[in-house]
From TrEMBL:
<dbReference type="InterPro" id="IPR036390">
    <property type="entry name" value="WH_DNA-bd_sf"/>
</dbReference>
<dbReference type="InterPro" id="IPR036388">
    <property type="entry name" value="WH-like_DNA-bd_sf"/>
</dbReference>
<protein>
    <submittedName>
        <fullName>PadR family transcriptional regulator</fullName>
    </submittedName>
</protein>
<feature type="domain" description="Transcription regulator PadR N-terminal">
    <location>
        <begin position="17"/>
        <end position="93"/>
    </location>
</feature>
<dbReference type="Pfam" id="PF03551">
    <property type="entry name" value="PadR"/>
</dbReference>
<dbReference type="InterPro" id="IPR005149">
    <property type="entry name" value="Tscrpt_reg_PadR_N"/>
</dbReference>
Length: 117
């Protein structure tokens, strides 16, 4: 993977996490799996990449965490994350910013499309 692709992925990870948490509460490993599945393998995120994002979002009060025991045989406690009202507003802002950003990039790239190599 190129450095450009790596940086772009890191830049959009926050919005993707907020979006997934807007759909349902998830624990860290579930987020990793959902990102991988929904992106058809493009977002293979490691714990060392995901958890700093979760901590930043929690520190900024865009998400909150809680512990819950798994209903399975082992009854493992897991730390779940859920989006807050502030996180919902931030997600909406980020979606608008991202649409404008991508639209602007497209305009720049298509201005000379076909005129130069």
């Amino acid at each position: 993977m190129s450095d450009t692709a790596s940086q772009l992925k890191k830049g959009v990870l926050e919005i993707l996490v907020l979006y997934l948490l807007s759909r349902s509460d998830l624990y860290g490993y579930q987020l990793i799996i959902e990102l991988d599945i929904r992106s058809h393998g493009y977002f293979k995120v490691k714990e060392g990449t995901l958890y700093p994002v979760l901590y930043r979002l929690e520190d900024s009060r865009h998400i909150e965490s809680y512990w819950e025991r798994d209903d399975g045989k082992r009854g493992v406690r897991r730390k779940y994350y859920r989006i807050t009202a502030s996180g919902g507003r931030r997600l909406a802002e980020m979606k608008q910013e991202l649409a404008l950003f991508f639209g602007s990039i497209k305009q720049v790239l298509e201005v000379d499309d076909g005129e130069r190599d």
